[in-house]
Design brief:
29% of the residues lie in helices and 28% in strands. The chain has 449 residues and is of the alpha+beta class. It has two domains: 6-294, 3-Layer(aba) Sandwich (Rossmann fold); 305-445, Electron Transport, Fmn-binding Protein, Chain A (Pnp Oxidase, Chain A, Roll). The chain has an eight-stranded mixed β-sheet, sandwiched between helices. The two termini are 40 Å apart. GO terms for molecular function: hydrolase activity. Keywords: Hydrolase, Oxidoreductase.
Length: 449
């Protein structure tokens, strides 16, 4: 990709590493770009540069098993796997993203949004997407895709194989972006960079009902883009899908087929940017009661906080804890502090029943600890040094910037959270260590003068 691109990495739903390239200011609104099956993230180079120039941050991701991304554990390359990876990537971003997907990756984005991930997205753009392809066409495309995993004598042979997937459309002309998914080996033959099992695809006919159900649940800005010469995504199918998505828009690009992103780059970028500027303008955003709660979360993220790990012992005496920045001092006389815990937390009842808890304030060297306690699972304390002070109490993480040993004072209703107030029984601190901070979805660090 362009020299100004930076390499970034994400974790997929099964721990698989996903390669990505990013361009644009790190605090700008994010546009996440997903290539079609068989393509690499390089197909988005032109769009990414245009988005960055327009004040957005573009992140182009290789799908699981594609190019620089790791293969899927177990070889799972179905709609659920792609959708789960997308949800995992979105959860690692500092703010909601507009997601742009082509073909199967667009379907994965649609399913991810409709089945619970819409709060992680600000908008959805679907390029050449349909829930309905006749079995004969689907079978022909699958056979042609599988042939792309063969070895080829030269770049011309590679491009011929790519063109055969959609033989009734114009052959792709922006070949540099497409060749990026292949590499020349020591034997001088060209091969696709990835797990060939991805070309088997998934049975779209078997997923149609699921896709329709997800589309009906969408409540976010959505744009459908179709090339007028797309052989397998008809105008009627696009209209049908548009009708299922509340408030969705649809546009066509004259003369384009499956490769409108690259072969009609200027026209595609113009339509994408026009949609973003109109529906998600680069200006101060506002939250009003009843609006998308993720928007309020973004607003709250403008307030920088420290990072803590809140701990206690469960009924069996085992340590439990989670990362939280919803911690504050309440009173000096009596000495009270509070933290908030989500009602959906798996540890909620343990903290409700506990007579004591500890607040461990982290320093800049404890970012891995924060990450560990932010992830789901029962192994958060593995490899972590901790102790319970003489006389009892909650687990104290060794080496924290400060630790507050508290007895539970009161628990209050806090909407989708509970507010737990504790009386400080003991506090130990080392004020010369720099704190670990959190602002707008990112860790921050400040060094004292």
């Amino acid at each position: 990709m362009a020299a100004s691109m930076e390499q970034v990495w994400f974790r997929g739903a099964q721990g698989n590493r996903l390669a990505a390239s990013a361009i644009g200011d790190g605090d700008a609104p994010i546009v996440l770009l997903l290539p079609a099956v068989g393509q690499s993230r390089h197909v988005w180079s032109g769009a990414a540069i245009a988005l960055a120039a327009a004040g957005r941050r573009a992140i182009c991701v290789d799908l699981r098993g594609h190019c620089d991304s790791e293969p899927a554990p177990g070889g799972d390359y179905d709609l659920s796997g792609y959708a789960a990876d997308l949800a995992a990537v979105l959860a690692q971003l500092p703010s909601r993203a507009t997601v742009v997907g082509v073909g199967p990756s667009g379907l994965a984005a649609l399913v991810a949004a409709g089945e619970g991930g819409a709060d992680l997205m600000s908008a959805l753009v679907l390029v050449g997407v349909t829930a309905w392809v006749d079995p004969e066409t689907a079978a022909r495309i699958r056979v042609a895709l599988e042939r792309r995993a063969e070895a080829f004598a030269d770049e011309t042979a590679v491009l011929d194989a790519i063109a055969r997937v959609h033989p009734f459309e114009p052959a792709p002309s922006a070949t540099r972006q497409l060749i990026g998914a292949y590499e020349r080996g020591e034997d001088a033959l060209w091969r696709w960079r990835g797990d060939a099992r991805t070309f088997a695809g998934f049975d779209l006919a078997a997923q149609s009902a699921r896709i329709e159900a997800a589309a009906a649940k969408l409540r976010l800005p959505a744009l459908l883009i179709r090339g007028t010469l797309n052989e397998s995504v008809s105008r009627a199918a696009t209209d049908r899908l548009q009708a299922m998505i509340a408030g969705a828009e649809a546009v066509e690009i004259d003369g384009g087929g499956h490769y409108v992103v690259t072969d009609h780059e200027d026209a595609f970028n113009a339509r994408l940017l026009e949609f973003l500027e109109r529906r998600l303008p680069l200006q101060a955003r506002s939250y009003q009661s009843g609006a998308d709660p993720r928007l309020l979360r973004d607003a709250m993220g403008c307030f920088g906080t420290g990072v803590t790990v809140v701990t206690t012992l469960d009924a069996e005496g085992a340590p439990i804890g989670f990362t939280a920045n919803s911690f504050t001092s309440v009173s000096l006389d009596p000495p009270l502090v509070l933290f908030c815990i989500a009602r959906k937390s798996a540890n909620l009842q343990s903290f409700v029943d506990a007579r004591s808890f500890a607040i461990n304030i982290l320093h800049i060297g404890q970012q891995p600890t924060s990450d560990r306690f932010a992830r789901p699972g029962d192994a958060r304390f593995e490899g972590i040094e901790w102790q319970v002070r003489e006389g009892g109490g909650a687990p104290i993480l060794t080496g924290s910037r400060a630790s507050f040993d508290c007895t539970t004072h009161a628990i209050h209703d806090g909407g989708d959270h509970l507010i737990v107030v504790g009386r400080v029984e003991r506090a130990d601190f080392e004020p010369h260590r720099d704190p670990l901070l959190y602002l707008q979805g990112k860790y921050r660090r400040v060094h004292f003068a």
